[in-house]
Amino acid sequence: MQLGVIDIGGTSIKYGIASDAGELFSLDSIPAEAYKGGPLIVEKVKMICDMLLKQAKVEGIAISSAGQIDNQNGTVVHATDNIPGYTGTSLAEVISKHTGLPVTVENDVNCTALGEYWQGAAKDMDDFLCVTIGTGIGGALFLNGKLYTGANFSAGEIGHINLYPNGKPCTCGNKGCYERYASSSALSELVEERMGVNLPLEKFFELAREGNKEANNLFVQWADDVATGIQSLVHIFNPELVLIGGGISAQGDFLLEEVQSSLAKKVMPNHCKSLRMRIAAHENKANLLGAAKHFLDMNRKS
Fold first, then answer.
1. 240 neighbors 276 (Cβ within 8 angstroms)
2. Distance (Å, whole) CA 148 – CA 155
């Protein structure tokens, strides 16, 4: 079986063809222009589907999307103003009508977890936490070998756990949220505020790796905030593994070792015994793999 796989993000929409064995082909992307709203996103997805149907004998469309997603019906339960007018979109229904094919939709971070569980760094792990660090912070929970989505498909909103009461205002309406201190955008803000320059994070990490004292101090401070958020989740869920994904995961062992070192000082001993921490193996491709895995699981049940 071949599936068209699509990953809707705020910056780009990635797409390609996936086999039921987890192989990916013909990968490409287009700008999302998410700020222009949900209806435009839907039109772009239709256009991508038309291209995929011309490329291969596709038997279904599997979509990974930003937002809180009803993964049974393929609807957008809630989306922030990053994609205006996206909330309430019956995405699976609309795309199925357009293509004449079965369509499934799942949240993007849940897809990261599913993809890594199927073909990546979380293979054979039944209890793990997936944390994606980018412009914001996303989370997914894998408990007893199954993705946990909560009562209203909204579990895993770890970016909005409170790190500093009455801290920096967040887009969710609260103050002091985790992602306001531990996301890559939060790190960029911190670097500009303390170093007085708008420094690309790639250059900042170069300086930190080279031993620049100011850059290294900021990196350690930021990584400590990352670890503090993970600490609470480890104490609640006692996972076997914490998986780090998102753009920041490109920093590999340099990031992993600092967060692990900080976390080890915060977590109670019994929670530390068998806890592992890894970088996601497939980076952006994990979402496409996870979307395919969700489609296959849904259609095996039906």
1. yes
2. 7
